[in-house]
Amino acid sequence: MFLRIDHVGIACHDLEAKIAFFESTFGMTVVSREVNEEQGVREAMLHVADGPNGSSYIQLLEPLSPDSPVGKFLAKRGEGVHHVAFGVPDVAEAMGELGGKGIRLLDERPRHGSMGSSIAFLHPKDVGGMLTELVQAPPPRT
Ligand code: V0V
Ligand code: CO
Q1: Which stretches make up the VOC domain (predicted)?
Q2: ipTM for the complex?
């Protein structure tokens, strides 16, 4: 069902400081920065590698407010891995299939994600404690 690990999301207090750390330590490059009001985050995507089924990234996440998902996570658990995102060919189809297996969907419909993607989240309690994101990449520009 999954094409790749699209990204691993890391919650942090200071996005610019964490970007500098990942760049200088691992030689990664920022390929996108966005503010996503709906998700309550300021985020950056750092390229890791390209594969036959698309690219993979580290997503650094700074909360826009303390009562956002990432703000609450930081208050409760501190900085660290927040979610794992799997690439899927069709996010609506994957939501239907996984919902049919009894996994709780946190979104009723796909939402806007980084770099023009469509995304949806699965409840961490139904996935072994791992907040799981489904990502459908936008169609390639011709
Ligand atoms: C909460 N829990 C987690 C978790 N967040 N477990 C693993 N990983 C996480 N990130 C646990 C928490 O410890 C509780 O367990 C339980 O789930 C319920 O959490 P809660 O604190 O009572 O509830 P909330 O209000 O914090 O909500 C948690 C959920 C929320 C996961 C429902 O954060 C959510 O809807 N997230 C989806 C949206 C999101 O995260 N957006 C930001 C990324 P105990 O303590 O009861 O055992 S945006 C993004 O990735 C974008 C834009 C992109 O990729 O393009
Ligand atoms: Co994400």
Answers
A1: 4-137
A2: 0.98
